[in-house]
Design a protein that fits this description.
Oligomer: single chain
Bound molecules: zinc ion
Number of strands: 18
Cofactor: Zn(2+)
Keywords: Hydrolase, Metal-binding, Zinc
Number of helices: 17
Low-confidence stretches: 498-524
Shape: globular
EC number: 3.5.2.2
CATH architecture of the largest domain: Alpha-Beta Barrel
Structural class: alpha/beta
Distance between the termini: 58 Å
Enzyme class: hydrolase
Helix content: 25-40%
CATH superfamily of the largest domain: Metal-dependent hydrolases
Largest sheet: 9 strands, mixed
Pfam families: Amidohydro_1
Radius of gyration: 26 Å
């Protein structure tokens, strides 16, 4: 059956227009006015409503086995929660354990997800160990058969997922070579591991130890390092869960220098701050444990939204990875054993609307950009996803900007029993969610079966990500200076009178090489200046 959405305002990331939308066979057929309507078309009235591209959450961990537990939002519960909140696609992470290979882990995740997903999904692959086989498998994973175009590296979680700088750099070079986007969890894992032990020895065992062991400077330092290394590998970089001002500043500084770096704040970081870790109720404090932690600076959430508004940060995600209160109690006597993770996939759209559009910081088009279309562009599925136009997948939300709701674990669709946004009133309510042409959420009811969602393979060498990088590669060719070394042979000191140096300097070949040299010199100098500047900024924080 076809579907017609009438009288609403269609919002894309670059324009808004009053138009009707006709959907047939899961695809958008028409956007406009006065086109012929097929028989048996269901009509949805969207008067006073916006019609938005379905949300894309580029960072989730459904049913992730982590810290001895398994995240309780599996691919069924988690993607239902997504749809109830107006998100029609997720990008989840395959995370191989240190003794497994990327290909093995890929099959495992597909087998978990395919029968359960209720919305569409793509996968990103974490690289948790480094060797030639991993490099080979990365290449294989970017072929159409596997459909992966991004790889994530952890600079934290020492002895679990963390890679060393040398391994990270090899990984970045491989990403650049195969046209894949590198993503990074940026915190200094070595220092955190030491701080954790120090705090435990001092008797700080509660969730407040989590934030004290992971100082914001350690996120800022690792973010700056990751950007620097990515620049050295000429590889585009995507920094996941930007939680602090220092990390955001490092990204902005590199973007201003022309680096291809994307920064992703998450719903938790846009609406909550780190004061929760000091709550006297252990379960409450533990519920907010995620890494990097929420910022202890209460102004950080607003700053992150400001940076999203001016595109110094680029898109929003959730890092949805939920554990029940009883699972969190694994760390009752030791904060390092509290499973890390919070909810977000259901409430992200409303939280971003509230803090962005309702707060007067962004318009509905920017809202579409940071909740949907930028993710579609970065992961190379635009305009199939993230846009309302003929030919695109019919993933849409009928959004009521004037309605409000109060977020609560009593009414959410997550499998967890705590909601970090509990009690928050949000403007902007997804009234109807349509996923590939099917009305899956309406009147507060979900109507979707396990497995309705599909895996969306994504291709490497995305122009949105690699366009500038490819051009830059030409200017980064190594430079060799031709010199006449005959006179230096056999360690002989050339007689002063016989010096040929001045004549060889006038050699026209050499001049050409030397003048080619200049752009490279400047490049190096600007990177050096940048590192100094960023370091100074970090110190003055
Ligand atoms: Zn994550």
């Amino acid at each position: 059956m076809s579907l017609l959405i009438q009288n609403g305002i269609v919002v894309n990331d670059d324009f808004m227009v009053k138009a009707d939308v006709l959907i047939e066979n899961g695809t958008i057929r028409e956007v406009g006015k006065d086109f012929p309507i097929p028989e048996n078309t269901r009509v949805i009235d969207a008067t006073n409503r916006l019609i938005l591209p379905g949300g894309i959450d580029p960072h989730t961990h459904m049913q992730l086995p982590f810290m001895g537990q398994v995240a309780v939002d599996d691919f069924y519960a988690g993607t239902r929660a997504a749809l109830a909140g107006g998100t029609t696609m997720i990008v989840d992470f395959v995370i191989p354990s240190k003794d497994s290979t990327p290909l093995e882990a890929y099959s495992l995740w597909r087998n978990w997800a395919d029968p359960k997903v209720c919305c569409d999904y793509a996968l990103s692959m974490a690289i948790t160990t480094w060797n030639d086989k991993v490099a080979e498998e990365m290449q294989l994973l970017t072929t159409p058969e596997y459909g992966i175009n991004s790889f994530k590296f952890f600079l934290a979680y020492k002895n679990v997922f963390m890679v060393r700088d040398g391994e990270f750099f090899q990984g970045l070079k491989q990403c650049a070579k195969i046209g894949a986007l590198a993503r990074v969890h940026a915190e200094n894992g070595d220092v955190i591991a030491e701080k954790q032990q120090e705090l435990l020895q001092l008797g700080v065992t509660g969730p407040e130890g989590h934030t004290q062991s992971r100082q914001e400077e350690l996120e800022a330092e690792a973010t700056n390092r990751a950007c620097t290394l990515a620049g050295q590998a000429n590889c585009p970089l995507y920094v996941v869960h930007v939680m602090s001002k220092g990390a955001a500043k490092a990204i902005a500084a590199h973007r201003q220098k022309g680096y291809v770096v994307f920064g992703e704040p998450i719903a938790a970081g846009l609406a909550c701050d780190g004061r929760h870790y000091y709550n006297e109720d252990w379960s409450h404090a533990a519920a907010y444990v995620l890494s990097p932690p929420l910022s202890r600076d209460p102004n950080t959430p607003e700053t992150l939204m400001d940076l999203l508004s001016c595109n110094q940060l680029n898109l929003t995600a959730t890092d949805n990875c939920t554990f029940t209160c009883s699972q969190k109690r694994m760390g009752l006597n030791d904060f390092t054993k509290i499973p890390n993770g919070v909810n977000g996939v259901e409430d992200r759209m409303s939280v971003v609307w509230e803090k962005g559009v309702h707060a007067g910081k962004i318009d509905p088009m920017r809202f579409v950009a940071i909740t949907s279309s930028t993710a579609a562009r970065i992961f190379n599925m635009y305009p199939r996803k993230g846009r309302i136009q003929p030919g695109s997948d019919a993933d849409l939300v009928v959004w009521n900007p004037n309605a409000t709701r109060v977020i609560s674990s009593k009414t959410h669709h997550h499998a967890c029993d705590f909601n970090i946004f509990e009690g928050m009133e949000v403007h902007g309510v997804p009234e109807i969610t349509i996923c590939r042409g099917k009305v899956v959420w309406e009147n507060g009811e979900l109507n979707v079966d396990a497995g309705w969602g599909r895996f969306i393979p994504v291709a490497p060498n995305c122009d949105y990500v690699f366009g500038a990088v490819k051009a830059r590669q030409k200017h980064l060719q190594p430079i060799s200076v031709k010199r006449n070394l005959t006179s230096l042979d056999n360690n002989l000191i050339p007689p002063q009178s016989e010096s040929t140096n001045s004549s060889s300097l006038e050699n026209s070949d050499l001049e050409a090489v030397v003048s080619d040299n200049k752009p490279g010199d400047q490049e190096e100098q600007s990177i050096e200046t940048l590192i100094k500047e960023v370091a100074e900024n970090l110190i003055s924080e």
